[in-house]
Specification:
about 100 residues; three-stranded antiparallel sheet; two-stranded antiparallel ribbon
Length: about 100
């Protein structure tokens, strides 16, 4: 997840490299309106939307991205677990050739 400040001359900044490590939550206790927070183990990023409807969309999309990243990770792990034969099996297959 990256962001760019309002000044377009700056490069993008990385908020989170791995969405699996993120959480997102509403930040209603602030003086500012329509805020939410993206939290990683290394940093926290407060974001302010233009309206409550946009804030809800942002939070929903970020939550969906987190779920998708977790599913992809789990899917890759299952695929790797099931498709990679143990070394003994590989040796047996090579002997059969």
């Amino acid at each position: 997840m990256v962001y760019q400040s309002e000044r377009k001359d700056e490069d993008y900044s990385i908020v989170a490299e791995d969405m699996r490590m993120c959480t997102v939550k509403y930040a209603d206790d602030l003086d500012r309106r329509f805020c939410f927070e993206v939290v990683t183990p290394w940093r926290s990023c407060m974001v302010q939307a233009d309206s409550d409807a946009l804030r809800k969309k942002w939070v929903t999309y970020i939550e969906a991205s987190i779920v998708r990243a977790l599913r992809i990770s789990a899917s890759n792990k299952v695929r790797t677990t099931h498709t990679t034969p143990p070394p003994e099996t590989t040796l047996l297959n090579l002997r059969d050739l």
